[in-house]
Give the backbone structure.
Amino acid sequence: MTVFGIPTQALFGQLLIGLINGAFYAMLSLGLSVIFGLLNIINFAHGAQYMMGAFVAYFALQWAGLGYWPSLLIAPVVVGLFGVLLERTMLKRLYHLDHLYGLLLTFGVALVVQGVFRNEFGSSGLPYTAPPQLTGGYNLGFMFLPTYRGWVVVFSLVVCLGTWYVIERTKLGAYLRAATENPTLVQAFGINVPRMITLTYGFGVALAALAGVLAAPIYQVNPLMGADLIIVVFAVVVIGGLGSILGSIVTGFGLGVIEGFTKVFYPEASNIVIFVIMALVLLVRPSGLFGRTA
Amino acid sequence: MTATRVLVLAAALLAAAVPAHAQISDGVIKIGIMNDQSGTYADLAGPGSVVAARMAIEDFGAAKKNMKVEVLVADHQNKPDVGSSIARQWFDADHVDVIVDVPTSSVVLAVNQIAREKNKALIVSTGATSDLTGPQCSPNAIHWTYDTWSLANGTGSAVVKTGGDTWFFLTADYKFGHDLERDTEAVVVKNGGKVVGKVRHPFPTADFSSFLLQAQASKAKVIGLANAGADTTNAIKQGAEFGIVKGGQQFAGLLVFLTDVHALGLEKAQGLLLTESFYWDLNDRTRAFSTKFAERHRQARPTMAQAGVYSAVLHYLKAVEALKSDDGPKVIAKMKELPTDDPVFGKGSVRADGRKIHPMYLFEVKKPSESKGPWDYYKVRATIPAEQAFRPMDQGNCPLVKK
């Protein structure tokens, strides 16, 4: 059986590949959405923070002999602390200003961080291998699924849904959402809003770092790994609707699949298809597929 | 009257200052190194090429010979429009005499047009398109280190002869990838092989899984990588994940630099066949040059692209010295006339179509157990003599070559 001249079996393979790439889009756009939804900051340093996550994993292995599993915890914590520092010392001074200032600041931070890493480690990347438990793969009949890629999809789904649950369904999430709506009132109830905002930014940044650790065994640990990805991820966020948690998860996975199919039917267009969709969505629904209408 | 006197005095002063280099425009030889300083191709050329150019100027002894040589550096970001505007700025406003290096074939061809229009010189080391000595050849340009034809000729024929007779191409979707694919396909077919499929991926691409699945489904024995830099290393690395080599298929890296092997690690790169014109551990001269280079460039050994920049700048300066002029096409003509000799490629020459001639080598990447440490990566499988390493002049359709 074939669809447009491509065997259905091959299409199943591509569907799965699309989901795997979508997992990265989902995790990164989720972090961006959390930060924008709760802090109103457009965090352009997200790609650099994702890259830092991968580098922390690399350093942990080189300097302390700590492998992949501890890095899944260490990298988000270390990079998250960097985020907290950034928020405390710089970002918090900008909340009363236009979005554009936060965007410019984080963009500048991203350039500086990437420049420093590139200067130190070059641009061709450093090798990082998957842990022995996750190497090898399964022959699914229609495709060969590397174990590690399967792990990435499952793990990121758990993280994404966990985050969604915490923000939309728990008391802590309710505080967070309330603090965005009316910080003064929430503060009046005795909740430390500035600290909550700082920790939220740290959490969003930690999500990026976690995605970086997940990506390290697949791509090279490369100073520029986030620079290319971040533009796509922003498109994903815009399509999903700025600030919508569920929107960014669903569009992340969905666009990964669409991009995967484009690579089969018209590979030349695979790096622009997301932007074409973005343009179309903006024309029809300017606030994004899942966005609240302004 | 005083104004006239001042003018006369200024003219006299200028005349007194200039005669030492009457033919050198504005008294300084300006060499512009244009490449990718920060992106995919920055490690294989980038700042290392600048180090190599500076070493060439020192080894030539420009200071002792009282020749003023300046190096300018620009980042073309692998974009033809950016490269073009830098070239125009350099030639028109900054009085640059020669542009050297220039990775990314699409940028090479754009800058080639401008060098010709402005009557300046261009020496390409990292850029690969064989069209530069073919239909696009120019009296203002020399192609120095390697080209798509010589890569295809080296790796392509070696792989077909060892039984890899069905091919699937993963091709970077721009001028360089297309040319490399075209030249390799010709070699494969000529040696009795067959191309069963190809896919053109955007440049640059981080995730190759989708393309690798297509290559896997094609059942071709050889997956030809008509790309470079991080694209090549990502494809090989992810290929290992998808069990490409374990499944009985083989990668042919059509353009692999030493820095790519360094980034991949020997575990993943071992056994890979590749063609290059330079490796640091070929002989005493290459070793001495490379040790000096490493001291000045993060302990990294030079790639063929960087070594080529050294060799090219050295020969350029020799030609300027012999000619006592830095006029673009005249220096290029002189460079073609003089034989070349340097630690990088040994003795060689430059053909009428602008092709620099020297041997190419077919290397195999060592097993981790065979390597003595970082940068000890290649063993020589075959040496392709200079006269066979490049496309014969009568097959290139270069208008400069009289038939």
About this structure: Chain A touches chain B through 38 residues (CB under 8 Å).
